[in-house]
Amino acid sequence: MPGLQDVTRGRLLYGGDYNPEQWPPHVWTEDVRLMRDAGVNLVTVGVFAWAALQPAPDRFTFDWLDTVLGLLHDGGIGVALATPTASPPPWLGHHHPDTLPQGPDGIRRLYGSRNQYCPCAPAYRRAALAISSLLAARYAHHPALRLWHIGNEYGTTCHCGHCAERFRGWLRDRYGDLDGLNTAWGTAVWSQRYGDWAEVLPPRRVQYVINPLQDLDYQRFCDAMLLECFTAERDAVRAVNPAVPVTTNFMDTYRHTDGWRWAAAEDLVSLDTYPDPNDPGAAVRAAMSKDIMRSLGGGRPWLLAEQSPGAASWRPVATPLRPGLHRLWSMQAVARGADGVLHFQWRASRQGAERWHGAMVPHAGPDSRVFRGVCALGRELAGLSDVVGAAVPADVALVLDWDAWRAVELDHQPHFAFRYVDRLLDYYAPLWRDNVTCDFAPAGGPFDGYRLVVVPNLYQVSAADAARVTDYVAGGGTLVVGPFSGVTDRDERVHTGGWPGPWQELLGVRVEEHWPLPDGSPLDIASPLLGDFTATRWAEWTVARGAETVAAVRGGPLHDRPMVLRNCFRAGTAWYVATLPEPDALRRLLRQVCAEAGVTPVLPDLPPDVEAVRRGDLVFLLHHDTGRVEIRREEAP
Amino acid sequence: MPGLQDVTRGRLLYGGDYNPEQWPPHVWTEDVRLMRDAGVNLVTVGVFAWAALQPAPDRFTFDWLDTVLGLLHDGGIGVALATPTASPPPWLGHHHPDTLPQGPDGIRRLYGSRNQYCPCAPAYRRAALAISSLLAARYAHHPALRLWHIGNEYGTTCHCGHCAERFRGWLRDRYGDLDGLNTAWGTAVWSQRYGDWAEVLPPRRVQYVINPLQDLDYQRFCDAMLLECFTAERDAVRAVNPAVPVTTNFMDTYRHTDGWRWAAAEDLVSLDTYPDPNDPGAAVRAAMSKDIMRSLGGGRPWLLAEQSPGAASWRPVATPLRPGLHRLWSMQAVARGADGVLHFQWRASRQGAERWHGAMVPHAGPDSRVFRGVCALGRELAGLSDVVGAAVPADVALVLDWDAWRAVELDHQPHFAFRYVDRLLDYYAPLWRDNVTCDFAPAGGPFDGYRLVVVPNLYQVSAADAARVTDYVAGGGTLVVGPFSGVTDRDERVHTGGWPGPWQELLGVRVEEHWPLPDGSPLDIASPLLGDFTATRWAEWTVARGAETVAAVRGGPLHDRPMVLRNCFRAGTAWYVATLPEPDALRRLLRQVCAEAGVTPVLPDLPPDVEAVRRGDLVFLLHHDTGRVEIRREEAP
Amino acid sequence: MPGLQDVTRGRLLYGGDYNPEQWPPHVWTEDVRLMRDAGVNLVTVGVFAWAALQPAPDRFTFDWLDTVLGLLHDGGIGVALATPTASPPPWLGHHHPDTLPQGPDGIRRLYGSRNQYCPCAPAYRRAALAISSLLAARYAHHPALRLWHIGNEYGTTCHCGHCAERFRGWLRDRYGDLDGLNTAWGTAVWSQRYGDWAEVLPPRRVQYVINPLQDLDYQRFCDAMLLECFTAERDAVRAVNPAVPVTTNFMDTYRHTDGWRWAAAEDLVSLDTYPDPNDPGAAVRAAMSKDIMRSLGGGRPWLLAEQSPGAASWRPVATPLRPGLHRLWSMQAVARGADGVLHFQWRASRQGAERWHGAMVPHAGPDSRVFRGVCALGRELAGLSDVVGAAVPADVALVLDWDAWRAVELDHQPHFAFRYVDRLLDYYAPLWRDNVTCDFAPAGGPFDGYRLVVVPNLYQVSAADAARVTDYVAGGGTLVVGPFSGVTDRDERVHTGGWPGPWQELLGVRVEEHWPLPDGSPLDIASPLLGDFTATRWAEWTVARGAETVAAVRGGPLHDRPMVLRNCFRAGTAWYVATLPEPDALRRLLRQVCAEAGVTPVLPDLPPDVEAVRRGDLVFLLHHDTGRVEIRREEAP
């Protein structure tokens, strides 16, 4: 099976999206020259070129692409060729209005923007497969071709009749018959029982709260339909030349596509990431995204497919990256396993909705701060070939689960602002600040080789997944579980008899009630081990059943309820955290856990804001503040 | 006519909604056992059971309900049987899409949630009447049956063609002909004159503000249609066994259904109430709701039909009730006239949109804080049979008027945030804090026997209602009228010549202009009698015409305008308050008024946060804070 | 060509909208009497009278209007007669649903409010022209008629099929063929290329950001269609009696209609203005609106067509004007060039959505504070005939451009809250505070005779307009240009090679990057000339290319970047301001610029809150605070 190594061929990749169809041919020549100046060796071509390649249903214009690919190849620049199916031309929507997606309100979304397709519409599927197949037939053996880039940032949803029809089929596959569906969806509640498959619909506009599993299943279904779209195009290009690897570009922490399933369907993992330079948490969020990408690929190198050297135009306040930040964040990607740093895009578009998006060649032209920085970074990356293919070691795994994410964010959960990604960051951030490198793992593992497994939040848990976590602790592992976990099964049926459902014995605790807290009413928590602290937004009515109380509430209705518990379970140790402690307290807790589990940082005692990551034989030291720090390497005694 | 006494039979009712269709039969047996442990003697069955009873248009399955009613009866537990018409099965919407309600945007609301019916759709009306009649035919003489519970929390609105047709008929009945409609709606404004009945429509999506009386009349019409739905089902069940009383469950201060009209149509009044444990004003709001229920029933006992012993799942932050709060609020209901305390629901649903709603048997099961509290309360209520049927005496009546409420909250009123329920609370809360028990009364009275009548706000007033209030004062009564009152007639036509329209002589004041105030600009008001105070959001350009000025503005454009006036009118006294004083000032004012009118508290000089209510021979003392207070009964000297 | 002088005939106009169709005839007589008491000499009749004049498609009722015009004429009161086409009767929408406008969501807006017409619907156009022509035929020579008032506050938009068809024609006229359209709209971006005119649509609901020029062109097109509606009715009335001048009423700073184009199409300019008495900036906003009106008419007198002597009913908090404020703002209009002060409306409506809008005769009636003030003002204006027709001199011109305004507020601009009117006020307000009178001018001038031209913001600039500004400076003028200017061409194509595009040489600066700033992160700026100051929200990465740096950033990523630059260009001076300085700093800057350019205030050294404007031989002194000030006239030495 081909992989990123077939693209890198020993060199870090550097480049960006290239949209020559927006420019006259004389610019193409200048582009290749400037790319060479900048050290570019891979560009992504054709992402939005469908209308340029097929201006009418029965007319094709590949000649310009022939020319461009030839110029690039002559310049020594490799190509990631895209199937252009993320943005159909207006003619598709005009001739096949049923390819235009409908909102839950039944209103169709028109062309004039992008992404206006229903993933279930047969006419869309046919047209997308046709253009992809033609591209494959023409270019799959082109010498410039290094990589197939399928679609773009998959994520479109639709609620139309085509979707309803496919949804019924998907449900039939999942639940067998209507009785199965009625049982799973709990339609005995609110008189929702279905008597005929024809009655079953996507969630559309309703009077009040929608059935939660109908909502969740539709999210799962939409994901599956997009994956079908991807797979069909992947197969079409692979069929012509199986040696060329295939990818599609993921977005930062994106709920709609299940990373584990998608990563399994592609040859290498790619990420589009746009940290906000105005967000003080940008570095840690970016680090987490990057660790997730590495983990989705099973530890193999991944590709940074898009970032901006300037502004991200969709931000309400689109501040550009300050000098140095583009280099810093690029290096963070390489440190955390990326074997390539690409951008959206090569040359800033003069027109269209993204005309204010940063680019390697900005509107001001090559004589600019930005382009000079791009060239400097290109030179620097060219000197880092040693890390190509190298691994990033980690002793800690955080559990990441898309279904539990979607479920915990359904409507009418006990706290409307309980957000899954915040929960991940609660635990990832203190570990990152202490330079403890983390992988991510699915809810069912495997967890072999990790000294510590952290489950920041796992609202839905199946018996099988629960058992694997239990086995991990039983075998000597250390586990930390965060609040509102083990609450429902995969059909969103509440575990009765107390929570965290199947983990009560493992954790030595029984939760009787969830206790969301209004803003402005922090809990006061006492802990001899961790020091006293406060917690907000969430608590639980816990009853210790064998676990040792590490921290308990002081005062108020939850007085004396344990909020942090430690339980010795067979050969291992399991912690339960029933609330959302203030960040410093959670950091102290995780330091304690790491110390007990034998987890150590990449380098100890670094100044604040210095990130350290080991990759292969190198340790990357990344300073996220703008002042100067000095770090001395101590000689071994 | 049957009433609540036919349900209580001398004992306070205790129980909740019971949805056995969500559980396998073996749970039913456990349920009856647990109900007996808890002292439950009434459960509401079948509220959302339509699909369980009629899984297809032509198929009926009553056997499970036969079994359940038998089990309950054998266990000595009475049944409030519901007509299940609040939530039609999917087949109704599927076969009759015209039963699905349309928003003002014309978009239909689908099944998958609940309440998806158009109250005017003939197919819905037929189906609802059919299932209700079948239930009546089968169970109206069942020995377990104590009460009919029609529908659930009526409140659905629709804007479809069926509604348009019925709306025209309703308007024709009200206004006679098109000239009458054009005159009433003031269609000379903005060129809205109707020349043909076919042109007349519900308020739908428009470019700018809708005609205010079109909006208000549509609210009145929707209320009337829902009442028709209720009445049809009531008549169907009453026809089979007139001895069984009929009710439907109201919601806390709900604008869409006119409590006075609805209460007149049922045998007893029921309330669903969900105070927010995070709201510092929860106790006073709850007390007001309960006093309203007692008043709607003319002082007779009423039924607390739904509350939660835990969380209310639809709250953004669904905090459960702290220990003791469930008991406290239940006792408040009994103190204020309830002869029963029911809950939504008996056993927590494992599935569906309300799986996080509190229940008497929570997810954790009977071994839980909540269920133990439920059992303790059951025992306590069983010991309170003395109050069953007893009255709650009150010397004060507050005027409550649904039409004025709707009108004062129409679009483009002078202050967008002038809310009717806030105005009621302005006056109710200080009286509650001083333990002065209040009834509520319609705008036209009767006011016989009250020492004090308070009109917190009455934007719309008819000549007839105005005259009754005037007569009350003329006959020696004391009256307080709040701001923005007496402004329009019942057709929303502004009273000209100054306000409060027909009450200028009664109150001895003429208001020339309303003077809404922006936030952050309080009025400074001087009053030798009440002490100086501030007021916010609302003032008026008043001119005293005979009344004595009790408080007047100091500084600013309204300098010297009277804000509180007292007028001797024949044998009585009438106060006018033209602004929204700070709460303590209004409390001082009402103490003054009560003292002059001879109104006294239930008990004087109680500590703060202690509520005292007399019911029959008992005085209930309810402490709303969590600390301890000691109250000693003084011996009569 | 007729003008305002044909209406005034030497007297300031005074009056308001008069809607007799809302009142019985006996009120008409009282109205004329009260108008005479108040000094009213012009009323606007018939704005919303379409249904009263044509109650059915084939029925007309002009008799009441004959009577009213006769009564007015007999009372010596002139009439501005309206074509009533802003609010079609229900029968039009009922018989021609395609005249009802569609939102971008395809949902039609119904009657029941006002403005429910599609400007492109042929049936609307026909009906509007027909009623206008009949009015003209009947009244164009009526002795009371002084002025035609076409429509009302033009501004309706629609996205229906009629609009789509006309939009295609408009685009064809603009861009020639589909290639032209594709080139202009940049459809190579995101695969939006159109292959057939039938594919081209208005911007409707889309998945993501709309094509920016599609959006902008649709705004231009909607403006053009409304102007067509106006022009057709104007021509119809003019054809019958060309001696009667024609106007339509503009709204305060309203983006949807291009004032320069509209003013050129009418005989005189009119304004509806409703400053918010709770807005501390009301006086300066109002002054700016009034100066814009004078400028749109090329310096000729204009008409204040609507204001309120009380509240504006559409405000969320509709506070009335405090005593004195109605007089003050009326005088401000006269001072700034108005030859008439009219109101909406004469007599407060008892019904309808605007029943809480202030009026000359309020609900309380003539015996009221408001009506007494109205009469006093009438007397005062009658004594000011000297200013009728007089000019308001100004040495400064601010550039005002509707297309640039629309473009800078498109979606996904670098800062979502960069608002054009705020930018105008940034520069207008300090000049106003210093009593420097300003005109407004189009982007292409002419600028002859101005000592100073200010371009607060001009995001779009054409080569031709840019050249005219350059010529102005070259010829000795002084120019100030604000940030984010010279950025795109009129087809919204970004100027490459640095900004402000064609003005880099003129201003001696090259901007490489725009640098929007998040809230809470002010820039620290050092300036020996102006004193240090802070700036917010916006900055730029500037490189001085010949200009002198007047102020530069201190610290942070933009350290040392010039933020204020002064460039000597041929005989003139050009300043560039790359950020949004705090108001006092911009005031110091403008004082410096004025001093250098020889611009002086109307009167120097006035107390704060005193506004001075010269009109003809008079200087108006307007005190905007409520205290007292004393201003002494110094004798010439």
If you had to describe this structure to a student in words, what would you say it looks like?
Three copies of one chain form a homotrimer. Chain A has helices spanning 5-8, 25-38, 50-53, 63-74, 90-95, 122-139, 161-175, 178-185, 212-240, 259-264, 282-296, 325-335, 369-382, 402-408, 420-433, 463-474, 504-507, 583-597, and strands spanning 13-18, 42-45, 78-83, 145-150, 246-247, 249-251, 270-272, 302-306, 338-343, 396-399, 438-441, 452-455, 478-481, 509-516, 523-526, 533-535, 538-544, 548-553, 562-569, 572-577, 610-615, 618-623. With 637 residues, chain A is α/β, with parallel strands linked by helices. Chain A has two domains: 5-157 and 223-387, Alpha-Beta Barrel (TIM Barrel); 396-597, Class I glutamine amidotransferase (GATase) domain (Rossmann fold), CATH 3.40.50.880. In chain A, the strands form four sheets. Chain A has a nine-stranded parallel beta sheet with strand order 5-4-3-2-1-9-8-7-6. In chain A, strand 15 and strand 16 (533-535) form a beta hairpin. In chain A, helix 6 runs parallel beside helix 9 (212-240) and helix 11 packs across helix 15 (420-433). The longest helix of chain A is centred in the middle third of the chain and has 29 residues, at 212-240. Chain A is globular, with a radius of gyration of 26 Å. The mean pLDDT of chain A is 97. At the A-B interface, helix 9 and strand 14 of A face helix 3 and helix 5 of B. Chains A, B, C: Zn(2+) binds at residues 118, 158, 160, 163. Chains A, B, C: Belongs to the glycosyl hydrolase 42 family. Chains A, B, C: Keywords: Glycosidase, Hydrolase, Metal-binding, Zinc. Chains A, B, C: It is an enzyme of class 3 (hydrolase).
